[in-house]
Design a protein that fits this description.
The protein is mostly beta strands. The chain has four helices and 22 strands. The protein has a single domain, classed as Maltoporin, Chain A (Beta Barrel).
Length: 481
């Protein structure tokens, strides 16, 4: 179950207070990012919540001068989670702390910290439907340090010279595989007409639930530039050493990524990676936005080119639980069109194909999904925000037509509520390492923004699945520092 710590850290960002879920709850077997997203379509609820949060924020007047950043900024959020099903229940309490220290754009020294403290209140440590990574410890209280780094930025760095040193536990999301490590990194200031920038890093991989004292090593280097008009290119090399793996734990990963803009409306990007002697994967994406007609389109293609088995944990985190990850292809299309000040139409389609039919199995399936969502932002006479979703799922086992609904309303100047339902043909649970099929989820969400520095939230989920009913209750509070 080491995989979940790698997936969890992808959700962590400096000074972004967790939303519905703590970092550990955001962990999910990705099996390719598109697969996880398509398998759990909770977009209507999240979109309504984000809109409510934005609306509750005080307006920023043009005549108000910008205030200098405080020396220390951040948040503390605490959440209680209770889950139950037939014959079993689980209660957990978690607190997360995020801090930004100094101003990274102007100060010579600045830093970032994200940490979490989790307590298993019922003390359950034996496998059950709610067995999680927290239950792998010998005690009910566990602490996690996701990152804690210090940046050093010389004031007079000339083009081509090092403009930033970073030391500590850090995360780099631009590397071909997430670089999460304890160590040192550096990058130069862009130079020349092509704005060439170089960088590198070295350290020890961060593995939250690793029991071995020898975590191996991670090294890497990159070069990026703007070699032509409106284009950017980046080349990466990563070396990963995993002493806990008996086979192929010493790996080299290289990648090439390209970005190109065509006028303001169209952006293209692509990435190709190569792992050891074989191609690993390829990703292509196109984004187009027509501002005049308020129409946006996104088309993406992902292909896993070679079987993933037995590599270093950092590039093959799911082997111990899900075994081999076999090659597959996935295409995604998303479209959005505004129909007026309060009307929005969104639609999309996902098609996933395992390259060899013999490799189809749990966590590795063929499916097709199409959906259309209609949102009315001010439905009179109750001032409701309504989102209706129609979906079609087609897999090797099932052909399903289903629906989703979200109703949101502002109940007061600082109080927002949402109620709704969505469907998942396949819903992955990283903690129990299982896949629940044919899941209908009903939810109720309340958010109370008490002041500029404090907010409280409540969420209740009821899951109706083939293997049983599950209930989850979350209570949370967040304080901005």
């Amino acid at each position: 179950m080491l995989a979940a710590s790698l997936a969890a850290c992808r959700a962590a960002r400096p000074l972004e207070a967790p939303g519905e879920e703590t970092p550990s709850e955001l962990a999910a077997p990705s099996l390719g990012d598109e697969t996880a997203q398509a398998a759990d379509p909770d977009a209507a609820s999240n979109a309504a919540s984000d809109a409510a949060s934005d609306a509750a924020s005080p307006p920023q007047g043009d005549q108000q001068p910008a205030k200098p950043a405080a020396p220390i900024r951040g948040y503390v959020t605490t959440r209680f989670r209770s889950r139950s099903t037939s014959g079993a229940d689980d209660q957990d309490l978690e607190t997360a702390l995020g801090l930004d220290i100094g101003n990274e754009s102007t100060d010579v020294l600045s830093g970032h910290v994200l940490a979490r403290l989790g307590a298993d209140l019922d003390g359950t440590s034996t496998p059950d439907p709610f067995f999680s990574l927290n239950d792998t410890f010998d005690h009910s209280l566990a602490s996690y340090l996701y990152y804690a780094w210090v940046d050093v930025r010389p004031k007079q760095a000339a083009p081509g010279q090092i403009e930033r040193w970073r030391v500590g536990r850090q995360i780099d999301y631009l590397t071909p595989e997430l670089a999460w490590f304890d160590g040192l990194s550096a990058q130069t200031r862009a130079s020349g007409r092509q704005r060439l920038q170089l960088g590198g890093y070295a350290g020890v991989p961060t593995r939250m639930y690793e029991t071995s004292a020898d975590r191996g090593a991670v090294l890497g280097a990159f070069a990026q530039a703007e070699p032509w008009k409106d284009g950017r290119a980046r080349a990466d090399w990563m070396y990963l050493d995993d002493e806990t793996r008996l086979a192929q734990g010493d790996n080299n990963l290289v990648s090439l990524a390209l970005w190109q803009s065509f006028l303001p409306s169209l952006q293209l990007e692509g990435r190709y990676t190569h792992l050891e002697q074989d191609p690993r994967d390829a990703r292509l994406q196109a984004n187009w936005f027509d501002q005049e007609h308020e129409l946006s389109l996104l088309l993406s293609y992902y292909e896993l080119l070679h079987e993933q088995k037995g590599f270093a944990l950092d590039v093959d985190p799911f082997l111990s639980n899900l075994f081999e990850q076999f090659p597959y292809r996935q295409v995604r299309l998303l479209a959005s069109k505004s129909l007026g000040e309060s009307l929005l139409l969104q639609g999309g389609a996902d098609v996933r194909r395992v390259s060899d039919d013999a490799d189809i199995g749990e966590f590795n399936r063929d499916f097709e999904r199409g959906y259309l969502t209609f949102t009315h932002g001010d439905l009179l006479p109750l001032s409701l925000s309504l989102s209706l979703t129609g979906e079609v799922w087609n897999s090797s086992d099932d052909d399903i037509q289903t629906w989703g609904l979200d109703l949101s309303r502002r109940l007061g100047p600082e109080l927002d509520a949402s109620i709704g339902s969505y469907y998942s043909l396949y819903k992955y649970d990283a903690f129990s390492v299982e896949e629940r099929d044919d899941v209908r989820t009903y939810y109720l969400v309340l958010r109370w923004k008490q002041s500029r520095v404090s907010a409280f939230d409540f969420r209740y989920d009821f899951e109706d699945s083939e293997i049983g009913d599950y209930q989850t209750l979350r209570l949370g509070a967040t304080w901005q520092l």
